[in-house]
Specification:
single chain; mainly alpha; two-stranded antiparallel ribbon; DNA-binding
Length: 377
DNA sequence: TTGACACGCCAAACATTACA
DNA sequence: TGTAATGTTTGGCGTGTCAA
């Protein structure tokens, strides 16, 4: 076990704290100015007011439900005085063995196929669905991001886990822990595959310094006038097929490294070698997650995660954290921008794609006439 | 048919940092 | 200072392949 000193990366969610609505605080909504209702208001204004009132009602309901859950927690708590020393781990509540196993599997799949990181996971699970949530406005603010996460979750959760079960402590904890484990596993795997993926010597990716020296330009590092430097989000060599120095809608998310990283995650390290040699990821001899999860198609989340993992694998960062401790790259922010970009592209193609490969998804995006994303313009 | 082997998943142990 | 949170590593185990 290498005992490397590690500086805790600042949580990228901190930045969002200011924009974060106090969703469980009913007093907050009463501070907000209420739109004025008049007879001569146009339909779209009336719609806005209806949404505003609906949100207020939802907030009040949420506050009540949160209070009820808290009361239940307190009631269930053991009231014996705490003993000295490290307390024994208590099993508060738990699902059946089969349910727990299923939740673990769902969390693993969700991490790879939907969101590598979730914003405030525990809050998301305790947030109630906003019926007025608009997927097209998902990335506008913190609240809609949470609703987007919730929508993603509800899409993958079987009916038996929706409702009260997904508010259960054992369920949230299991999902949380397993997302972390899965992140760690795939990060470890992708980095192990890095020499194969990037056609380089093992020593090139061995240390933070060697990766920085050899690959930082490929993952978006640019020097700016005045001695400053930064990492680009979209103008990144390895995201593109045959990168020509600028963002290209025809080749972005087509980089070989993305395909290889995705193959490594879903079919195992052996598939990376096979994909490079024959163009097809061979079937792993053991069980691979592709089989376990019955994967039939890629998603904006999985394509974005492949982009992040491919970049991170050859970055100077030692750990896969929301914000890189060595590079300062906001990995979680970049991930969300990728998903936003891909989803916007897909929404313009009638909201869905059911094709069987990442290539097909990219082909659809290719046809899109979208120019360079606004934040990179 | 069977045993050896390769491959990949997973959970537990461990390390480190942040925070109360 | 103790604990929670987060991430890494690794050994055990399950599964598929192949040769004898």
């Amino acid at each position: 076990m290498p005992a490397t000193k590690r500086a805790r990366a600042p949580d990228s969610s901190d930045e969002e704290e200011e924009n974060r609505p106090p969703s469980l605080d009913s007093r907050a909504s009463s501070r907000s100015p209420s739109p004025e209702l008049r007879d001569d208001l146009p339909a779209d204004e009336l719609y806005k007011i209806a949404r505003f009132q609906q949100k207020k009602a939802n907030k009040a309901t949420k506050a009540l439900q949160a209070a009820q859950r808290k009361l239940t927690d307190i009631t269930n708590e053991d009231d014996t005085p705490p003993k000295r020393g490290r307390p024994k781990k208590r099993k508060v509540d738990s699902g059946s063995e089969d349910d727990t196993k299923e939740v673990k599997n769902l969390a693993h799949k969700f991490t790879v196929m939907n969101l590598l990181w979730m914003r405030d996971l525990k809050c998301t699970f305790n947030t109630d669905v906003d019926e007025q949530y608009d997927p097209l406005a998902r990335w506008e603010n913190w609240e809609s991001k949470v609703q987007g996460q919730l929508a993603d979750l509800l899409e993958i959760l079987p009916p038996k886990f929706r409702g009260e079960t997904m508010h259960a402590q054992w369920f949230i904890n299991t999902f949380h822990v397993e997302m972390g484990t899965q992140r760690s596993n795939i990060a470890n795997r992708v980095r192990r595959c890095a020499p194969e993926v990037f056609n380089c010597a093992a020593t090139d990716v061995l240390t933070s310094e060697s990766r920085r020296d050899k690959f930082r330009k490929q993952i978006g590092y640019v020097e700016q006038p005045g001695g400053k430097s930064k990492y680009e989000t979209f103008k990144v060599d390895l995201l593109h097929k045959n990168y020509n120095g600028k963002f290209d809608v025809d080749t972005v998310f087509r980089g070989d490294a993305l395909h290889l990283a995705f193959a490594g995650v879903t079919h195992g390290p052996g598939a990376v070698t096979a994909l490079k040699a024959s163009g097809q990821p061979t079937q792993a001899t053991g069980k691979c997650v592709s089989q376990l999860w019955h994967l039939t198609n890629s998603t904006p989340g999985s394509i974005s995660a492949s982009g992040i993992l491919a970049r991170w694998a050859v970055s100077a960062d030692i750990e896969l954290t929301p914000r890189g401790a060595q590079t300062g790259i906001d990995w979680q922010g970049d991930l969300e921008k990728y998903i936003e970009y891909l989803q916007n592209g897909l929404n313009k193609r009638k909201n869905l794609f059911s094709d069987s490969s990442m290539q097909d998804a990219m082909d659809m995006l290719d046809a899109d006439e979208e120019e360079e994303p606004a934040e990179e313009a």
